[in-house]
Write a structure and sequence with these properties.
This protein is α/β, with parallel strands linked by helices. It has one domain: Rossmann fold. Helices cover about 40% and strands about 10% of the residues. The protein has 4 helices and 4 strands. A 4-stranded parallel sheet has the order 3-2-1-4, with helices on both faces. Strand 1, helix 1 and strand 2 form a beta-alpha-beta unit. The chain starts with 6 loop residues before the first strand and ends in a 5-residue tail after the last helix.
């Protein structure tokens, strides 16, 4: 795929796969929007990328899935549109099912599922995606 002149929004960009994607995609002639909950971590990733002047930081929490429309609007305002949304953000859980309180499972669903769906729906409201 040719990423030249594309505006790419990556959630979960502060570490792991999202960070790796940001670093690799920054080698292309594209603009990136990096998102996660942690502004400082996003700034650190941006500093490791090529062409940092083509990278915007937009911190937010996917767990706030009912209020993502203003976040999507801010993202669009950064570069005028979004060509590609990479829904990479999420949280994990590391314990046995029997040892995990149902409230943890609920939080996982809120962030990993509802947050991703909510952001995709919020962005699609602007009919430019």
């Amino acid at each position: 795929m040719d990423f030249k002149n594309k505006i790419i929004w990556i959630t979960g960009a502060s570490s792991g796969i999202g960070k790796g994607l940001a670093k690799e995609l920054s080698k292309n002639d594209c603009k990136l929007i990096l998102s996660s909950r942690r502004q400082e971590s996003l700034e650190a990733v941006k500093s490791e990328c090529q062409q940092p002047e083509s990278i915007a930081i937009l911190p937010f929490d996917l767990g706030d899935y009912e209020n993502l429309k203003p976040i999507a609007e801010k993202a669009i305002q950064l570069f005028g549109k979004i060509d590609i949304l990479i829904n990479n953000g999420g949280i994990s859980q590391r314990s046995l099912v029997i040892d995990t309180n149902i409230s943890v499972d609920k939080r996982l669903m809120e962030v990993n599922y509802l947050g991703t769906v909510g952001l995709s729906k919020a962005l699609s409201c602007f009919r430019q995606f």
